[in-house]
Each structure stands twice: as structure tokens, then as C-alpha cells.
Design a protein that fits this description.
429 residues, alpha/beta, Aspartate Aminotransferase, domain 1, Aspartate Aminotransferase, domain 2, 2 domains, seven-stranded mixed beta sheet, four-stranded antiparallel beta sheet, 12 helices, 17 strands, 14% strand, globular, binds pyridoxal-5'-phosphate
Length: 429
């Protein structure tokens, strides 16, 4: 890793950093929303990533194939739809640190969490507990609650929610590992976020997985905020399963397709319980229309329904940009850019008492998002920034999340935000 730049709160410094940035040109390959007639300062890729300018052409290509070939598009043309799922595998594998057969794009995140729980949560009278971070994303909480009830159990008896120490905002790995050991043989599963949506904390997925395995439990992760944002090595870390969405850092459009990871060691386990559909059935046998489900090898064996070709086309437009940029370069820039945002916030807000960064300071414990706890001014601070063209997001009760996504955010964008921040502090401090 190159040494950290010595940051400065000057426009010339930001310009210089942009001139040195090998990914600088990617910014012009995205559409920027306008606020008051000007390109927004867009820090909301943690919620919805921006649209690659190539997305429309990728989508139009499939619309044209459909127009010109009708059903023949499944087996003819440049990219026959029958095996369209294969196209995204190599780059998803790079982003997730997986083998191509361990990943597949399908369904939606919340749906996939349920499907993976069917296979990986099999409580017994003695081993039934699930460890989750406290304050998990609502969909994950509802998923766990209803899955537990589905097994005839009471969430109160099953869920172990991890909370930060008093006076701290984020979890310590040592405390997570200790809780896993404490639950020991009663622990069935650890089911946590990779990056916590509210605090921006990146968990030590490898250490957590290892601790879970040591007590005989499985470890699964919701990577909604980690995919395309944090460096991941799911295969080497021996994570059992994971899922993510493509519309946050993966810039694939509102509600677009999710994806799953299932570790290679489950690649050929037809005995694992699962809810099946014809698209997870042996590809060669599929059109024999016969009884008897035979799961495909690897993650593909968890597919249910025929691939959403139009969704996957837009997803691919974005994935091809990730392929071109490469995750190592994206991460490198991310560390520097988020470091710059952090420096400017600390430099400018100082001890004004308006805000406090609760995301860990250590770059190894975060992605690009910083979560700011607002102590004075409440949501009015957020509204003031928005009026100046800054798109972040407000999360109840009192956090503003800002994510300078490295593919389309420049150092000058971060500098411009700093100017807005400086002005706004005159009102709220
Ligand atoms: C964004 C997000 C979701 C959203 O789930 P969908 O099924 O895509 O609507 C779920 N969990 C987490 C942790 C998220 O950040």
C-alpha cells in the first residue's frame, strides 16, 4: 500500500490528488443526479449506487435480442439466455474472493437470506442459538425472527445480540469471539453483516468464521454493504455462506439482482435441505421435465427460477467497470478518499460539538462509509447539506451516513463537501 498522503484542506491539494488518481476517469462513466441544476455531491452509494453510462446499451442489447429472436434467444445469439448466469461469475468471484462456482447472481437479498437459512440453520434441542450484531438491518431481523419461529422456537431463546461496550459505538472482535466461545456447543450459527449499515464497521469476517467453526457452528454474512466496497476472501476465510445486493456499491440499479456465495465444500451436497426450483436442477436434465430434484454443482444448485436476463444485463454493465478498475485499486483509492473525508471533518468540525464520527478509525475496520452522529441540529443539519447539493442519507435516530464511493467520487468532491460543512457549522455550532 502506498503511504498515506499528508492531507490538506485546500483545493489545490484535492486537485493534485485527482491528477494522481489512476481511477479518476471512471467518474465520467456514471450519470450524476442534479440538485438545483448542478451535479450532486453524491455520497449515497451505500444506499443506491449511480448508474453506469453503459447500462442502457447493455439493456438495449437484450431487448433487441428479445425483439429479434423471441424465445430463440434462450439458445441462440451472442449470449444465449439459458446460461446467462455464467457471465457474471468471474468478476463476482473476484469481488467476493471466491471460486466462480461458489457464486451466482439471483433473486433478492432478503429472499436469498431465507433460502440460505433453510440449508444452513438446522437447530437441534442442544444446538440452536444464533449470534447476530445488535441493531441489525430490519430485513435481517425479520428474517431471523420468522425463520426461528418457522422451526417452532422462540427468538428470545435463540438470538444472542452483540452490543458494544458501554461508551463505545462499535464491536470489538475479541468480544465477538468471546461470545462465540461462551455459547460453545449451543451455537448453531453466526449470522452477521460484513459491514454494519449504521456504524460502517467492517467486521473481521475471517476471525469470526474461524471462531464459529471452532465451536462447531456455521458462519454466514450479509454483505449488502461490503460487496464492491471491502476486500473479501470468502473462499480462503472458509465462510459457509453469504449474500449481498447489487444496487448499493455494485451500482446495478434500484432493486436489482442479488447474489449468493456457498463455500466449495457444499458444492455437491444434495443431502442439504433446500427449497428447490427448476433453475437449480441439473442443466442437462432440466428439459426432460422429470421428477426427482438433482441440484447443480456449487452455488447454482440454490437457484430457483429462470434468470432475470434484463436485470443481469444492467448488473453486467457495472461489473465490467469493476473488472476494468480491479478491486485492489478501488480499495486503495477508497482508503485514501475516506481518509481525506475523515481528515476534513475532524479538521473543520473540531470541537464544535455538532458531530462525531462513530465509524472505526482503522481503515482495516471500515469500507468507504463514515457514519456521523449528529449531536446538535438533528436532521436540520442533513437538510442544510442537501440544500447545498450534498446527497448522503439520514438514519434514525441521529446518524448521517456519507460514502465517497471510489469509482465515481473525486478528491475535489470531498473537498467541496468540506466547504459545505464549514458553512453549515456556522449555523449549528
Ligand atoms: C440494503 C440491505 C438489505 C436490503 O434487502 P433487499 O432484500 O435487497 O431489499 C438487507 N440487509 C442489509 C444489511 C442491507 O444493508
Amino acid at each position: 500500500m502506498t503511504p498515506f498522503p499528508h492531507y490538506q484542506y485546500t483545493e489545490s491539494f484535492a486537485k493534485e490528488r485527482d491528477a494522481l488518481d489512476p481511477l479518476a476517469d471512471f467518474r465520467s462513466r456514471f450519470h450524476f443526479p442534479k440538485i438545483n441544476g448542478k451535479d450532486a455531491l453524491y455520497f449515497c452509494g451505500n444506499s443506491l449506487g449511480l448508474q453506469p453510462k453503459t447500462a442502457a446499451a447493455y439493456l438495449e442489447k437484450e431487448l433487441a435480442a428479445w425483439a429479434n429472436m423471441g424465445v430463440d434467444g434462450y439458445f441462440h445469439g451472442e449470449d444465449p439466455w439459458y446460461s446467462v448466469r455464467k457471465k457474471s461469475k468471474p468478476i463476482l468471484a473476484q469481488i467476493l474472493g471466491a471460486l466462480p462456482e461458489e457464486v451466482v447472481a439471483m433473486n433478492y437479498l432478503s429472499v436469498n437470506l431465507h433460502l440460505l437459512m433453510v440449508s444452513f440453520y438446522q437447530p437441534t434441542p442442544t444446538r440452536f442459538k444464533i449470534i447476530v450484531e445488535g441493531g441489525a438491518f430490519p430485513s435481517d431481523q425479520y428474517m431471523l425472527e420468522t425463520q426461528i419461529k418457522f422451526h417452532g422456537l422462540d427468538p428470545k431463546d435463540v438470538l444472542v445480540e452483540l452490543l458494544p461496550r458501554i461508551g463505545e459505538y462499535t464491536l470489538r472482535t475479541e468480544d465477538i469471539v468471546e461470545e462465540i466461545r461462551k455459547q460453545g456447543s449451543s451455537l448453531a450459527m453466526v449470522n452477521m453483516a460484513g459491514i454494519q449499515y449504521y456504524t460502517g464497521q467492517l467486521f473481521d469476517i475471517q476471525a469470526i468464521t474461524q471462531a464459529a467453526h471452532e465451536v462447531g457452528a456455521v458462519a454466514g454474512f450479509d454483505l449488502a454493504h461490503a460487496a464492491g466496497n471491502a476486500p473479501l476472501q470468502l473462499h480462503d476465510w472458509e465462510v459457509d455462506f453469504a449474500t449481498w445486493c447489487s444496487y448499493k456499491y455494485l451500482n446495478s440499479g434500484p432493486g436489482n439482482v442479488s447474489g449468493i456465495f456457498v463455500h466449495e465444500r457444499y458444492a455437491d451436497r444434495p443431502d442439504l435441505p433446500r427449497f428447490a426450483g427448476w433453475w437449480g436442477h441439473s442443466e442437462a436434465e432440466r428439459f426432460k421435465m422429470e421428477k426427482g430434484f438433482q441440484p447443480m454443482h456449487g452455488a447454482d444448485g440454490w437457484q430457483l427460477a429462470c434468470s432475470n436476463v434484463l436485470s443481469l444485463a444492467v448488473h453486467q454493465a457495472s461489473l465490467d467497470l469493476f473488472q476494468e478498475a480491479g478491486m485492489p485499486a478501488i480499495r486503495e483509492k477508497s482508503i485514501q478518499l475516506t481518509g481525506y473525508l475523515e481528515y476534513l471533518i475532524e479538521e473543520i468540525s473540531g470541537d464544535s460539538g455538532v458531530l462525531e464520527i462513530i465509524t472505526p478509525k482503522n481503515p482495516a475496520e471500515r469500507g468507504c462509509q463514515l457514519s456521523l452522529l449528529i449531536h446538535k441540529g438533528g436532521k436540520a443539519v442533513f437538510d442544510e447539506w442537501y440544500g447545498q447539493g450534498v446527497v448522503g442519507d439520514w438514519r434514525n435516530p441521529n446518524v448521517i451516513r456519507l460514502a465517497p464511493a471510489p469509482l465515481y467520487t473525486s478528491f475535489q468532491d470531498v473537498y467541496r463537501f468540506a466547504r459545505v460543512l464549514e458553512q453549515s457549522l456556522k449555523k449549528f455550532a
